[in-house]
Amino acid sequence: MANVFAFAETRNGELRKIGLEAVTAARRIADETGGKVDAFVAGSAGIAARADQLAKYGADAVIVAEHAEFAKYNPEALAAIVAERVRGGSYRVVLFPTSALGSDLAPRVAAKLGVGLVTDVTEIKLDGDTVVVKHPVNIGKVIATVKIASHPALIGIRANMFTPVEKPHAGTVERAEPVGDPAASRVVVKEVKLGGGAKLDLGEAPVIVSGGRGLKGPENFKMLEDLAAAFGNAAVGATRVVTDEGWRPHSDQIGQTGRLVSPQLYIAVGISGAIQHLAGMRTSRTIVAINKDKEAPIFKIADYGIVGDLFEVVPALTAAVKEAKSRG
Amino acid sequence: MTVGHGVFIVIVVLALSFFSYNAQRLIRYMMSIGQPEDRTGDPVTRIRNLFLIGLAQKKILRDAVAGPLHASVFWGFVVLTIGTAEIIVQGLVPGFSYAAILPAPIYAFYILSQELFALLVLAAVSVLLYRRIVVKPKRLQGDKVHSGDAILILSMIGALMVSLISLGAFSFALRPESGTMFQPVSLALSHLFSGMSAGTLEAGRATSWWFHALLILVFLNYLPYSKHLHVLTSLPNTYLSNTSGPGVKGAMSYMDLEAEGAEHFGASDVTQLGWKSLLDSYSCTECGRCTAVCPANITGKPLSPRKIMINTRQRLMELAPLATGDFGEFEHHVLVAGEGADAGDSGTTASVLGNTLLDNYITEEELWACTSCRACVEECPVSIDQLDIINELRRDLVLMESRFPAEIQPAFESLERNGSPWAFDPGDRAKWAEGMDIPTMAEMVERGERPEVLFWVGCMGSFDDRAKKIAVAFARVLQAAKVKFAILGQEEKCNGDPARRMGNEYLYQMLARDNIETLDRYGVQTIVTNCPHCFHQIGNEYPQLGGNYDVIHHSTYIERLMEENRLPLKGEGKALTVAYHDSCYLGRYNDIYDAPRETLKRALPMVTLVEPPRTRSKALCCGAGGGRMWMEESVGKRINAERTEELLATGADVLAVACPFCMTMIGDGAKAQEPGVPVLDISEVVAQQLAV
Amino acid sequence: MKIAVCIKRVPDMDVRFKIAPIGNAVDEAGLKFDMNDFDSWAVEAALQIKDKDAATEVVVVSLGPDAVQETIRKALAMGADRGIELKSDRIPFDGLAIAHALATELKDGGFDLILFGKQSADSSNGVVGAMVGELLGLPLVTSISKLELAGQTGLAKREIEGGQEFVEFPLPAVLTIDQGLNTARYPALKGIMSAKKKPLEIKPAQLGEQSVSVVQMELPPERAAGRIIGEGVSAVPELVRLLQTEAKVL
Questions:
Q1: What is the pTM (predicted TM-score) of this model?
Q2: Is the ipTM of this complex over 0.90?
Q3: C-beta separation of B191 from B162 below 8 A
Q4: A226-248 b/e with 16+ CB inside 10 Å = b?
Q5: Across chain A, how many H-helices and E-strands are there?
Q6: If interface means Cβ-Cβ distance under 8 Å, which residues of chain B face chain A?
Q7: Rounded to the nearest 5 degrees, what angle is found at the Cα of A88, between the Cα atoms of A84 and A92?
Q8: Which residues of A touch C13 (CB under 8 A)?
Q9: Residues of chain B neighbouring A258 (CB-CB closer than 8 A)
Q10: CA C196, B393, B635 angle in degrees (round to 5)?
Q11: Model confidence pLDDT, tens digit, residues B92-151
């Protein structure tokens, strides 16, 4: 029997998708072993209202920490209360999201408890009493199977690997009080800036839409900006020819002499794939190429290629992405 | 002994003393500030250079207009110096004449030569003055280029000729009975003086003599204060230069990184340059031929090889008097002026000692603009090595200060980690050859066989999609000729040229030593490669590190295969007009101009080869050399665009190259034009013509 | 100011890895090793502080076999003052065990800042820095991409999903460095030469108990690159489907 603790991440009083993914992953382990799932949620007053949602995805119990200081991420106070709850329960597995917040929180808790932690996990198995996970190493070029012998085993799950599935359970709400005074934390999040305004940096954007000579002129980059906007988390890049021609600023250049990038998704539009460009983006996780020349070298490294007129394909793709996004 | 005679002796002694003082001072500066360097080896080649480049004015004559003019003045000076000696000796020993010691026919010939050359020089100087003052050719212009000095010198030469001619004319008029048919100029001019009294004529002769003799001494003593110091230094400079041999042309100097007590690598100031670079700076007369052919300068970038030389001289003249404790130094008005003269600060001792050649005179931007194409070196009539200074300054920037354009850091890091300037998996090096049945050296050795040649593919051929096709084409040619060859595959690494040219000698030696170790392990003797950079580096620069191989560029090798009838060719096809673009590392670095052209002609019987105006040793660089391939080109026009336009203006149907880097640059340039003209490597042209 | 930077020696990632015969490690034959990128930015961050305040001492610490000395020398060549090798036959996967050894070494060092890269390219676990912070009981900020120091207070920027967090903390503190903070300097030959003379201390690593271990390594299925899914606009729906279901990036 393995009881599982799932940290359900919230932001601005709402559960994040990866929070639900943690609960779904937890439910699956508990069901396989006949254990139960405790979901943990922290936030300012009113966060308890999220308990229903966690119950719907499979929480037997929902531990709710309500405190004004939890409105924003308070790393020290949150780590303290999570560690205390985990220590107090008899959990075999503790799940965190591998997110900006989860990656900060999980190792704090692991160190406090003196237990093992593996992050960015894509699969979890319980083999008898042994917790075994899959964890990509060497920038994803190798998959490691890792055994966590400690009790509990702490795991950070990778986003989008455990699709949330509704599986209603009781979701009994249990209140938890902060350990000490959360306002006394030494590390304080002063300000959070979300979305909008700030242009995503090429080095940080999860999605990059990039244009080459095939765009024919600076005016056509509007098309790529529209596609990037449809993704919402995308930045627009360019090849050396484009920046040399002055169609785009030099800072937008991707390649050996420009930015070296490695996003989740790289969409190369009208780019033939010169060595200097490939050197700067070939480690991207997924590469899409749109080019009218089916002999273009870019297709050799692209995961998905569309041969065609970019002036037709790109607007169609923009529309399709918008639609996919609106569906959720 | 007359009073005049005595006065003249005093003047000559004073003039020669003052000249000697200046000469020893300049030599002392050069030798005490500059680093030691041995330039005594191979006197045969040096004497050949002295004759060809110095006396025969081979390089001067590359300029069709100024060349013959300058050669006239130079040859005139050589011939007239014999007469000048006579005149000076006359001043010291009254009544002296060569007539007394020379057989009559030779003396007559001597007299004639003096007359004609004086006239020739006068004519040439007049045209040169006209060019300076009226025509103003572009290369003679520039930021703070001091035309005044040139005009002064040309005028002095003109005045010397006029006085020489008038001396002859007055002498002739005084004693027409002793005149001969070997004095046509004097004879003609003497008619002007008909009717003058003997006294007037003698006064005219004496004035001419004094004017001429004194002006010679003034001229001699002015030279150390003028950019025309080259009159004195150009011949020694040509003799001591290595730019046309001896040694390996274009090879960068060896640097002992492990040397005991080595603390400075490269040069940031004149004190770290070799003395020969300083002699080069004395020898620069600011003619601007180097700057006029510099691809960076032509396309509007801040590099001027002429400025590099002037700056070196300016800095030397600023620092040397202080550094050598020579406080009797006269104001070097001209030698510290010129391009970039505002850089130096002859103000306080502290500021002079605080300055450096790098930064105060020559900026980083200038240095990184260089494509190492060697056009400046090739063009310099007095065999100055501008590139040597640029290379030494780059070495200082990288090895001492880690100061370089940010975009080349990934290239350095990748060279270090992956053995290629691009971050590709070394395991993919032989991917281009998949399915072609090409063995690696390791495989061949395992079978107990040895190849006829090793095909050195290079990083471009291994990783660049376009260049891979060149590797395939050349491999097909080798296979068609039944050449038994192997590649190194994963064991090949970048030859190190990009690192070396970008100043990273440390990284270069690391790569080169690794490659030498691999090549020697397999006992490789003959290497063929389609990349001129690999070709030059392995063949010409690896010997510095103990790697000695017979390296052949594919243009030469294919030509040889055709010569031996080893290549089955179709010998047909449609008539094509082809313009071949010379690679710098093939042409100027290795004098290979004909092999690629011959290869094209033999492969395509119907070909018409057309040449752009700048071709062969005057060809414009594609813009990729000297590590420029890995740098941004954001200032001015793109070099590859400039070059491609020139090539396309020939009306060619096909542009041919013999270097994968040229392929990238010219290919890019051609793609930007409509309609696209194909750019092919010579091996691709041959491969298309294979009958198998 | 006294700064410690913990660095890791990792294999170059530009290659195609092979699995070693023992099955739970990659074959190291032919691999090139270098300093982990994130760690080089941590070294750079320390050196930039030193550039402004010459009195700063930068100490680099690396855990592993003697080969890590090469990595330490690189940091010294960049400009760090001295190095410490925490000697261990191999670098364990268990972050807590490593954190224990580092914390033991750093505990009494009197450091104002202890810097880490946010994660290593090989283990890709990203936990050691944060664990050291916790074990030492010091203020900790992870994954920072901007840093300002004013006296005994620091302000850091962290990238979070769809935005940024600005975090204030007091010194001494432990920070882990993300991409974007700086670009690491390239060591000049002069630095490489002087690094040879800088002190490098070797001590046994006091590794903590290990509860996490790699049992197996495998290569992911070859990416079927070069797959053309169609021509023109008609291929768009299929592309979107693949991005959603197969690549899971949409």
A1: 0.91
A2: yes
A3: no
A4: bbbebbebbbbbbbbbbbbbebb
A5: 9, 18
A6: 407-408, 410-411, 414, 421-424, 460, 463-467, 630-634, 638, 664, 668, 671-672
A7: 105
A8: 138-139, 141, 283
A9: 407
A10: 120
A11: 888 888 988 999 899 999 999 999 999 999 999 999 999 988 888 888 876 566 678 889
